[in-house]
Amino acid sequence: MTKRDTSRRTSLIHGGTRRSQYGELSEAIFLTQGFVYDTAEQAEQRFIKAGEDEFIYARYGNPTLRMFEDRIAGYLGYEDAFACASGMAAVSGALMALTKAGDHVVASRALFGSCLYVLEDIMGRFGVEITLIDGTDNAAWEAAIRPDTRLVFLESISNPTLEVIDLAHVCRVAHAHGALVLVDDAMATPVFSWAKACGADLAIVSTTKHVDGQGRMLGGVICGARDLIRGPIETYIKHTGGAMNPFTAWTHLKALETMELRVRAQAQGALDLAQALADHPALSSVRYPTHAAHPQHALARKQADYGGTVLTIDVKGGQESCFRVLNALQLILISNNFADAKSIATHPATTTHQRLPQEQKDILGITPGLIRLSVGLEDPKDLLDDLVQALEQA
Ligand SMILES: *Cc1c(COP(=O)(O)O)cnc(C)c1O
């Protein structure tokens, strides 16, 4: 059976494997900075053009990283990938590699805080013009994208308010103007990513989230066509130092083997919790992208089977009541992470999004009662019991 014949799930186990002369079963970790050459001529040749299985320096590439890059790229349907030190190294690397002074960028305003900082503060400082829009409004993309728009950037599902973007529409409009589409796919998860199917040029994944899935490693990856990945993106990142560590790549390779099982179970758990809490009297809203109570559930369902592993609940009675609920949780942990095997509750208004001005919070729907719930791998019944007893304190 050729690699092409295998299903996506099988590709998570076998994709990208490179075996050394020892024929190891589990992927080898090449914890090395450099590589040696048989002759001076061979070194010279490799610096002219390194072949498929030839490496020079770990900041440029490494066999363990290459295995991880090939495995995740194949899984997401892209030709190639570049692995980075964190999700933000991937986001900032891709944005900086593809823009220059005078370029115009359109982005959805419901962005992760660090992405917003890179776009507005850093890229603005280098003369890139940014237009932020309501990404859920299809007409707003048409209105904002111009002939000089170099790229568009968006979160396929926004953090923390779980807005869903009509990616096929955005890709159509952007491509009509020759702009590239970069998708931050952290919340959608690699398992339910629809970036490639909709025509996104680059899918950027914070592998810190569902790829690791167990709260250990920071990582990120940029997936796309080979000419972009091995062209401007590799050139920028290898010289600026954002490459992933081989140990991280090795843990990610092992984590990919179980990713579908984990993420599908977590997504089903999130959907079940949304269903079970939908009519709870202490809540003013419950949101999960593919659940019927989400205003964009039809679009979310058209794009993917599940809307990630996170749901939001809005506790009536504002921050005070919301904090009583958070403090009454006995199993679910208070943290600002998501996608862990351990379930996590976050209060975005006072933590991850604390610094946003109130008017921005209002626009994005980050209310004082909003809790972001990342569903882990515990027994779903235990999670529901914990939430129901905590909500009695509201
Ligand atoms: C976590 C996250 C990032 C950043 O990833 P790190 O691995 O923490 O650098 C970027 N975008 C989104 C949407 C995220 O959730």
From TrEMBL:
Cited CDD domains: CGS_like (cd00614)
Cofactor: pyridoxal 5'-phosphate
rRNA processing is among the record's keywords: no
GO MF term set: carbon-sulfur lyase activity; pyridoxal phosphate binding; transaminase activity
Keywords in alphabetical order: Aminotransferase, Pyridoxal phosphate, Transferase
Gene3D superfamilies for the chain: Aspartate Aminotransferase, domain 1 (3.90.1150.10), Type I PLP-dependent aspartate aminotransferase-like (Major domain) (3.40.640.10)
Modified residues (N6-(pyridoxal phosphate)lysine): 209
Transferase keyword on record: yes
Pfam (any one): Cys_Met_Meta_PP
Biological process annotations from GO: transsulfuration
One GO cellular component term: cytoplasm
Family: Belongs to the trans-sulfuration enzymes family.
Protein name as annotated: Aminotransferase class I/II-fold pyridoxal phosphate-dependent enzyme
Organism in which the protein naturally occurs: Rhodalgimonas zhirmunskyi
